[in-house]
Amino acid sequence: IEANRIAAEKRAIFSVLEGAESYAIIEREVDGKKGKEIIKIFKGLNSAGQHVDYAFIAEGPGFQAKIKMMVGLNFEFKKLLGMKVLDQLETPGLGNKIVEDKFTDQFKGLTFTPKITYIKNIKPEKDNQIQAITGATISSVAVIKAINEDIVIVLEIIEEELSK
Question: pTM value?
């Protein structure tokens, strides 16, 4: 089970980090949502060993259970590169649509400053908006909330890492 989880995590890293052929792990202990927690950031590296972008695991409570996803980001341009759901138990046929490309593809190129927001029943008009899944707003909002909360911590760690 653990080997499958690690393999799925590795596939997810490369799915959200275009051009990465390997990665280095940056780990920090921080005061998080549940007290002290370890944050892992995956620093994508190309074939020459040069930094390309970052990925991290965002997680938070969904409608039924915890939602866990891999998120890729470009620090310089403050944009998301993609999002892939790693684990979820949302309502079949409704909330579990968060794993479908129609939903996850909205995160490619999404600006995360200001915070990511959602709209219902209309196409996004701003660079930081996604369209919530009809009938599953709670699941859609849970994804956004987890990313918005965790990205703040991740950005602080990256800034600290770059200032070294």
Answer: 0.94
